[in-house]
Structure formats: structure tokens, C-alpha cells
Amino acid sequence: MSASKTKTTLASDSSSELNASNSYEQAFKELEQIVAHMESGQMSLQDSLAAYKRGNLLLEHCQKSLAEVEQQVKILNDRQQLAPFNANHE
């Protein structure tokens, strides 16, 4: 990805919030791409900051998704079937 394209992508991505329609897999893949690009050492300080902010949002989304799945697994009912988890009912 070129530096100008990356800068534009990260700037627009970092300002947008993640929503429930973002899957764990999509968020994780984007997070991996951001990490790889940051590790390349070819980003400006401003681009690195934007990438870090976006990465932080993605990380929080992934952690929340994993926590919800873990909670669902803990809520197995007597028949060993997965019961729906209501995050607002804790």
C-alpha cells in the first residue's frame, strides 16, 4: 500500500467507529495489517499515531467479541446446548 493511500485510509478509518456489523475476523485482519505496516518503519509520526488509534479501536472490538463468545460458552444449559447470551442482562 502506498504511503498516501495508507494515510488516507488510516485517517478515514480512525475517525469511524466500529459497529456490530464488523466481524471479529474482519477487525483482526485489519489489525494485523496495521501492525505489519507500523513494524515496517515507513510511516510518518502522524500516520503512526492514526494507525495506533485505529488499531486500539480494533483491539477493543476483538477483545469484546471474544469476551462475549467466552460468556456464551459458560452459559451452557442442562442439555449441553449453547444458550443465547444477553450482554445487557449481566
Number of helices: 3
Please give the radius of gyration in angstroms.
17 Å
Principal-axes geometry comes out as elongated
Judged by helices, strands and strand pairing, the structural class is mainly alpha
Percent of residues in helices = 55-70%
For this entry, give a set of tags.
elongated; 66% helix; 3 helices; mainly alpha
Layout of strands and helices, then pairs:
Layout: H1 3-15, H2 24-39, H3 45-74
Helix pairs in contact: 1-3, 2-3
Give a description of the structure:
By secondary structure, this protein is mainly alpha-helical. The chain has one domain (3-65). It is built from 3 helices and no strands. The chain has helices spanning 3-15, 24-39, 45-74. It is elongated. The termini are far apart. Residues 1-15 have low confidence and may be disordered.
Explain briefly what this protein structure is.
With 90 residues, the chain is mainly alpha-helical. It contains three helices and no strands.
